[in-house]
């Protein structure tokens, strides 16, 4: 029995350490700030309104730029059985917020585990241990790994990309990075899979065509020249390099 517990801790001890710290932050600070509210509201609508799209919050409060539902959609699918059981038991909705944040934390830590395993295979057990100590001792990553920011969804793909890079799977690395640039922020289209995924989900929840959904981005970035002066300069530089 002792041997089984030792082998379990050897396999999953680091995951339990990082997961317990992340879970502590979830229960210590369950509420979200403005940037997280987009995905929190999206997950609420998907879980509680389901196919009744006319009840979705973003039609009444659309914001400046449409957000993609892709990250919120996948987290909601994984959290839906537990949230459905809680709804059946008439528990307060705050518990559903705990669930979706814990699910997102599990996804993030799963990708971090994949990266950690590749670090161990490439550099050894000591480097893996220092990696875990650094991750556990600094506040930022474990606090934000459960918070539904677009950058957190992208962070999961970046972890996979670095893991595949250390593994030597360069095409898998490229796929993760392209998906990271395409899916969570929804700013560019680079692969057929991401194009189909983005074009399929956004029109369903936004109730308008894909290009119409991004007309606000074009107007806000290029016609108003708001925070996107840097973006415009980058486009000009790229065009100069091409032509």
Automatic annotation (TrEMBL):
Compartments it resides in: Endoplasmic reticulum membrane
Main localization (coarse): endoplasmic reticulum
One MF term in the entry's GO annotations: dol-P-Man:Man(7)GlcNAc(2)-PP-Dol alpha-1,6-mannosyltransferase activity
Topological relation to the membrane, as annotated: Multi-pass membrane protein
Enzyme Commission number(s) from the entry: 2.4.1.-
Parts of the chain that traverse the membrane: 12-31, 69-89, 95-115, 127-146, 152-174, 186-205, 217-235
Keyword set, alphabetical order: Endoplasmic reticulum, Glycosyltransferase, Membrane, Transferase, Transmembrane, Transmembrane helix
GO biological process: protein N-linked glycosylation
Stored InterPro entries: GPI_mannosylTrfase
Signal peptide: none
Pfam families in alphabetical order: Glyco_transf_22 (PF03901)
Pathway(s) annotated for this protein in UniProt: Protein modification; protein glycosylation
Example of a GO cellular component annotation carried by this entry: endoplasmic reticulum membrane
Record field: catalytic activity: an alpha-D-Man-(1->2)-alpha-D-Man-(1->2)-alpha-D-Man-(1->3)-[alpha-D-Man-(1->2)-alpha-D-Man-(1->3)-alpha-D-Man-(1->6)]-beta-D-Man-(1->4)-beta-D-GlcNAc-(1->4)-alpha-D-GlcNAc-diphospho-di-trans,poly-cis-dolichol + a di-trans,poly-cis-dolichyl beta-D-mannosyl phosphate = an alpha-D-Man-(1->2)-alpha-D-Man-(1->2)-alpha-D-Man-(1->3)-[alpha-D-Man-(1->2)-alpha-D-Man-(1->3)-[alpha-D-Man-(1->6)]-alpha-D-Man-(1->6)]-beta-D-Man-(1->4)-beta-D-GlcNAc-(1->4)-alpha-D-GlcNAc-diphospho-di-trans,poly-cis-dolichol + a di-trans,poly-cis-dolichyl phosphate + H(+)
Keyword Glycosyltransferase appears in the UniProt entry: yes
Enzyme class: transferase
Similarity-based family: Belongs to the glycosyltransferase 22 family.
Function field: Mannosyltransferase that operates in the biosynthetic pathway of dolichol-linked oligosaccharides, the glycan precursors employed in protein asparagine (N)-glycosylation. The assembly of dolichol-linked oligosaccharides begins on the cytosolic side of the endoplasmic reticulum membrane and finishes in its lumen. The sequential addition of sugars to dolichol pyrophosphate produces dolichol-linked oligosaccharides containing fourteen sugars, including two GlcNAcs, nine mannoses and three glucoses.
Name assigned to this protein: Mannosyltransferase
Organism field: Cuscuta campestris
Lineage of the organism: Eukaryota, Viridiplantae, Streptophyta, Embryophyta, Tracheophyta
């Amino acid at each position: 029995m002792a041997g089984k517990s030792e082998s379990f801790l050897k396999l999953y001890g680091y995951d339990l350490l990082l997961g317990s710290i992340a879970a502590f932050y979830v229960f210590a600070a369950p509420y979200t700030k403005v940037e997280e509210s987009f995905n929190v509201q999206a997950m609420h609508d998907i879980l509680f309104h389901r196919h009744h799209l006319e009840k979705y919050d973003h039609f009444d409060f659309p914001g400046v730029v449409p957000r993609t539902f892709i990250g919120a959609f996948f987290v909601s699918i994984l959290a839906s059985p537990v949230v459905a059981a809680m709804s059946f038991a008439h528990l307060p909705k705050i518990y559903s917020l705990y669930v979706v944040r814990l699910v997102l934390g599990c996804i993030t830590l799963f990708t971090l585990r994949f990266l950690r395993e590749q670090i161990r295979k490439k550099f050894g057990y000591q480097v893996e241990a220092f990696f875990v100590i650094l991750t556990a001792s600094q506040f930022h990553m474990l606090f934000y790994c459960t918070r539904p920011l677009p950058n957190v969804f992208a962070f999961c793909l970046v972890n996979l990309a670095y893991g595949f890079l250390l593994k030597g799977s360069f095409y898998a690395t490229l796929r993760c990075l392209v998906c990271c640039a395409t899916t969570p922020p929804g700013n560019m289209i680079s692969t057929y899979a991401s194009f189909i995924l983005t074009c399929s989900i956004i029109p369903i929840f936004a109730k308008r065509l894909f290009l119409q959904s991004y007309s606000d981005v074009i107007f806000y970035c290029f016609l108003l020249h708001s925070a996107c002066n840097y973006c415009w300069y980058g486009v000009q530089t790229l065009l100069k390099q091409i032509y």
